[in-house]
Model the fold of this input.
Amino acid sequence: MNKKLTLASALLAATSAFAFITWNADSDKVLTEIGNDTETAGYWFSYGDDGDGGASSVTWPVPLGNEYSPDAMDPVIAECGGICGTAVLAKGTLTYNPFVGIGFNVVGETSADDKTPAAGNASAWGGLCITYTAAAGPNLELGLGDAVDATIGYANPNVALAKASAPTTKKMAWADFKQPAWYKEATKMSGTDAAAQLVAVKFKIQAVPGSYEFNIKSIGPFDGKCGEGNAIKAVRGASSAKAILSGRTLSFAGVNTVATAEVLNLQGQVVAKGSAASALNLASLDAGVYMVRVAGKSVNFTNKIVLK
Done:
């Protein structure tokens, strides 16, 4: 008889009381709504087959990094309106097709002292939607952390996506995520069970050696508005509009129109609001990372700020 693997509730770092906010290339962080107090959920990362003997990599259109992290993908998002690049697949010593992937953790690190990604209950999302382009058909895979992944032979529930030269949107319920057909072992994991102990969402390109362009333009819950854009977009290309933080005073430059400024915490809640023509006093806010968004007739952008 097949047995199903579930994690003890004590390992679940968060509940799924809220569906996450659809990401439409509007910042470098996916607001999953189940991040913990480490504030490390939602940041994009890349991975590859080098640990298995492969030699694959991603070629980015511009160098990564910002003042907070050398791996931050803000420059890539600003360059191409999504997470874009070229998957350069090289087999090395692998006996199977090489791969690279892009993903984000849904809860973040377990604690300040334990950097292991934590699991969370994403059942309420209902599934996932995604808008993407890819020169090779990718898989959208549910990551469950190293320990659980090993227990199921790395046969993680996934959905195969078709290659797409133009932006393509697909919606998938949790039940649509299946383990690969090659997996024949007894320990099974359905997409529904995986969603209740989800660690990461991964966009994985695995194919014969070669170079394959891709762009993840939006991702969200099953009923999210993937591909429909967001009212607030990051500034693209050269622009003089920017947010300026001096101590706990936030002001704006290059905003030559009537515009509204909002400061959001990492749960997506507006914690300060005002006119972009005036400075905002943020003295009452806790220290931490916040998103600033400005919207007006001819200006729409987001910035990240860190209050100390």
